[in-house]
Each structure stands twice: as structure tokens, then as C-alpha cells.
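Page 42, continued from yesterday. The earlier attempt failed because a stray header line got pasted into the input along with the sequence. Redoing it now with the clean sequence only.
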Amino acid sequence: MNVTVTPAPRSSLNVRVEVPTEQLDSAISEAVRHLSRRTKIPGFRPGKAPRGVVEVAVGKDAVLDEAMDHLVQRAYRDALLQQDILPLTQAEVNVEQGIEGKPVIFTATVQVRPEVKLGDYRSFNFKPDIETIDAPKVDKVVEELRDQNASLAPVEDRGARNGDYAVIGYTGTRDGVAFEGGSAERMPLILGDERLIPGFEAHIVGLKPGEKASFDISFPADYPESTLAGQTAHFEVELRELREKILPAEDDEFARSLGSFADLAALKIEIKARLERNALDKARHEFADKIIEYATANATLELPDVLVEQEVEIMHDELRGTLARQGIEESAYLKVVEKTDADLHADFRPRAEKRVKVLLVLSKVAEAEGLEIAEADVDEEVAKARQRYGSDRKTMAYFDSDRGRSFIRSTLRRSRLVEKLVDEWLAAHPEHPALPHLEDDEGVAITEPGSESTSIEDALTAAGAAG
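This time it went through. C-alpha cells are written below.
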């Protein structure tokens, strides 16, 4: 058997196989025996009818087709073994010559794992960037804590203003006729949030509880309800309740109400310490991301279509899971965003290509670093998944499968690789501050005893998002 392999685009190989004539002759004899066993031929026991009789019963083409199917399958497998080719997916085989008395010739385009040529992934000129925590950032968290622990008090001696909590009743009409959804007895809102039609709340500002306003206003041209989009309506509005947010004083008593803090200064010391730990953790993760980007940018490879398409499907599954957790039907989501499955896949593809490239490069770097994951580590992760998803049979079946375990193994390998590169850089730069993981620290919750008062974590999270 003669096998010729030539490179093809998108990490694939063109495999051309030429099988000697005698192997086709042998395959035809084998096909005759198989067809004789499966076909009831009068006067002959199963498997004993001669070729001529079998061809009369099933046709010459059926005999040759049977022989070619088995021969090409065997020859394809043997060719891959001979050339040490590991295909990513089953190839489509094109038979160029399949005539009795001549060699069988067929070709196959085989997608294979791409060759990843690593560039430099260690000698980068960047370093972790640690955010400086100063007094204004601490004060911002204190303000957020005061806001989250504020109370609402009735307002009677002034008019409504933005930021107030209001309850209104209103009736909307068009040409004197009420329209669906245009009225409410008690509608709560925070003035200034523009929850209703743009400009609607401005007519409430200045009113006192019990006072009314009458005005015309136009719906936006892109209003979701098409019958109202761009139309003008008349509204009669009454301010029924008005409350304002009263923040607790920024003093020692407030600090003590949040937990075991002697005074406001102690609270600020704890906030500053937590913000600094957050900053170190953020710096470590951002530094790790930069290392990944550096290694990926310096590597050379061609992405196989099959891996990108698989990643697109994974991203689609992730979207389905997110929608399911929110109780949203995928068909309803597609209708709202005005997209088809094909549109989604086109949107996913650039990110899928990036994700596949990162995964392949990190896998190659892990190989270069000699980093392997023990089966015991995979078992431990499966056990953790069982504690978290124990009631979800489908999810656990996946994690218990070879594919699921492979996913866990590759995920552990990548994460440990990146942590290894970060830790080795830190060891080589002892002058740089240590970058511990936030999850390694003991969290300190600040709560009011016997209540569901806001914790410091909420304020820190908000501060991180804003920063």
C-alpha cells in the first residue's frame, strides 16, 4: 500500500492511498462470502454460494460496492497508523479509482491537531500593576455602606426632587381615550431614574404629596409598543407618597452598627485592608491574563475548523444554560434579539477562534513545562462537582464521562500552568510585592447582629466594578 501525505490549509492533511490490485481481489472474495451469508439463495447454504450466483442474486455492482467499502475503511485506518496521523474527526473519503483489475486509489482530507510553534512566553517586559488604595477610595466605600444602610422618611414640607422615592397614580389617554397599559393606581419609582417615558418624571419634580400634574408627552420613536411609538399622549398624575433617603451619620456609632468595630477609624482600617487585598488579587489575575496574551501572540498555528466549530457549539450551550437559569426560553430570546442560530454562531466565531488558540497554546506551553495532572486531582474535582451538582444527573453524567474528565484535566492543567508562570516570575523578582489569591484569605463579613444589613463585601464589589 502506497500512502502520500501533503499539507493542506486550516491544519489538515491530504492523504492519498493506493491499494494493490490483489487486495481488491481479496476484498471481493470476502464480500461474496458476506453477501452469501446475508442473502437467501436457493440450493446453497449461507456463505457457500459462488461469486457468479451471488452476483446474479444481488448484482455485480453490489458485490464491488461491498468490497470497496470494507477495503477503503481498512486501508484508511492502516494509512493513518502507518503515517502516525491522529484525526480530529472522521474524514470524507473520495474514491478516485475503484475498478476490478486495477489498484484502488482514494484520497481523504484529514483535519489534525495543529502544530503549535511556541515563541517566547517568559521574557516579557511588563509587570503586575497594583492599584493604589488611598483615602478617597476608602471614603467611597464608607459612603456606599451609608447609602446601603439608609432609611426612608416621609417628606411633607417640600416638593419632590430627583433621588426621592415616590408612589404615583396616573391615567394616560390619546384623543380622550384611555389606552392599554396607560394607567396605574400605585406606581413606585425613584425620581431621576427615568423608568417611565423620557421626560415623564420631570413633571413630578416639585409636587408635594396629594398634588397633581397634567401634561402631554410624546413616546419615543423606538418605543417597544408599536401603536404608541412616536405618538403623543395626555397624562393626569397624582403624587400619592414621597419619601427621602436618610443616610446614617458617618460616625463611630455607624461603624459599630456594622460589626465588631471600636470606631469609625477601625472600620476604615478594615476597608483599606480589604481593598488592598482585592487590589493584589486583581493585579495577579490581570498579570496572568497578560502572560496568556503574550504567549498566544508569539505562537504560530493554524486553527482547524472542526475545533472552532466545536467551541462555537460550546459557547451556544453556555448561552442556553444562562438563559435556562434566568427562566428564558431560547426561542423567545432569539425573537427579541432578532437573530437565528446561524447568526449567533457567526457572532460567536471570532471569540471561539480566540479561545481555541489560547487553549492550544497553553496546552503546548504546559507540555514544554512538563506539567501533568494526576488522576487523583481529577477525582477530587469530580467529587467537588458532585457536591455542587449532585441533584443534576445530566451534569454529573458529563463530569463522570471520559469527555468530562478530560475537560477537568485540561482546565486544571491550564490554571496550574498560569499560576506556575506567575509564581516563577515573582520568585525571580523578590523586590515585587507578593500577590496572594484573595480566596486564600479569610473573608470578614460585616453584618448587623440579628439583621440582613449590607455587608462590606457588597460595597467592595461595587467599588471594584466602578473602578
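Notes: The beta strands are 2-8, 12-19, 93-97, 104-111, 151-154, 165-174, 177-190, 212-218, 232-246.
Reminder to self: strip header lines before submitting.
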